[in-house]
Amino acid sequence: MLNKTDLSRADLNLLVLFETVMAERHVRKAAERLNLSPSAVSHGLGRLRALLDDPLFLRTPKGVVPTQRAEQLATPIDEILAQVRSVIASAAPFDPARSTRRFTIGAPDGVSSVFLPPLLDRLQLAAPGIDLGIRQILPRPGETSPALAWNDAIAELESGAMDIAIIPSDQVPTRFMTQTLFEENFVIAMRAGHPFARNKSLKNYCAMPHLVVSQTGDAGGFVDRVLAQRQMSRRVALTVPNFMFALAVLAESDFISALPRHFVDRHGRRFNVISTASPIKLPRFRLTLIVPKVAMKDAGLAWLVGLLARTGQAKPSRGR
């Protein structure tokens, strides 16, 4: 990428700047992430343009867009920086028992609330000094294609906003390492003693008031699409923004809700919420851990990925 003369005046920080602007697509936002002024970032971009003999990023009213040359350079620069970070990290070999690192994991809340309790138990035993940050990630509103629905989360992963993402899809670019944690399906959740438990027919299911978990408040979902194929419908009487809130509401109402089985198995008991099989066939899906392949050169991150994989493969237990 650079000739010998160029290397003598190259600054590794310029590659970090390139990586950040590429992720943010905005000079001011990149400056905030790097704790620099916008003028310092602009000056750095000017040096990069001279070094690489390309405009790299073109200004638009909403930020910047990369040139074709910048797009071509993105992966090689990511790999260079990953190698450098790996070399620096190798100066002190990763020891989970002594590490005080912090990792960020992104997942929908119905997923993180399943893997987090057993993961914390394992960390307490093997790596008590490691800290975690859990980020709530969501599909793009209205996007039905699994290949596109999680692109925002993938962009956040590449930008470094999180180290690991866990999503209900394995349709990701080949530059990512993927690991299936577990398979999931939906059950019908309700409070103990709910009348639906005595009559689980499809007709009675449609007649019940339904609760749907929806961050945007959109009442429609995959259940409605399945019912529409049979010329049937239901009444969605309430939407709530997260799964734990859903359990709390189900516990004190006559709503029913289609919720992930592992989630209800782990947390339903403390809310006195029970579940039963759905009277209509609902989709199954896999929960997939994804990490950029270049990031797996980080021994600490690779260790955490392995721990998560073992946690996901363990038989889920019901919450206490």
Describe the structure.
The protein is globular and about 75 Å long. With 320 residues, it is α/β, with parallel strands linked by helices. Strand 8 (209-213), helix 10 (222-228) and strand 9 (235-240) form a beta-alpha-beta unit. 32% of the residues are buried. Helix 6 (109-126) crosses helix 12 (261-267). The protein has a 5-stranded mixed beta sheet, with helices on both faces. Strands 10-7-11 form a 3-stranded antiparallel beta sheet. The protein has helices at residues 4-7, 12-24, 27-34, 38-52, 68-90, 109-126, 146-149, 151-159, 202-207, 222-228, 243-251, 261-267, 299-313, and strands at residues 57-60, 63-66, 102-107, 131-136, 164-167, 176-184, 186-191, 209-213, 235-240, 257-260, 273-276, 285-292. 43% of the residues lie in helices and 21% in strands. It folds into 3 domains: 4-90, Arc Repressor Mutant, subunit A, CATH 1.10.10; 102-184 and 285-313, Periplasmic binding protein-like II (D-Maltodextrin-Binding Protein, domain 2), CATH 3.40.190; 186-276, 3-Layer(aba) Sandwich (D-Maltodextrin-Binding Protein, domain 2), CATH 3.40.190. The protein is built from 13 helices and 12 strands.
* CATH architecture tag of the largest domain: 3-Layer(aba) Sandwich
Coarse morphology: globular
Parts with pLDDT < 50 across at least 5 consecutive residues: 1-5
Order of helices and strands: HHHHEEHEHEHHEEEHEHEHEHEEH
CATH class of the largest domain: Alpha Beta
- What percent strand? 15-25%
Helix content: 40-55%
The main sheet orders its strands as 4-3-5-12-6
Can you count the beta strands?
12
N/C terminus separation: 57 Å
Oligomer: single chain
**CATH fold descriptor of the largest domain:** D-Maltodextrin-Binding Protein, domain 2
The mean pLDDT is 89
Structural class: alpha/beta
**Total of DSSP H or I helical runs spanning 4+ residues:** 13
CATH superfamily of the largest domain: Periplasmic binding protein-like II
If you compute it from the alpha carbons, what radius of gyration comes out, rounded to the nearest whole angstrom? 24 Å
Total domains: 3
Largest sheet composition: 5 strands, mixed
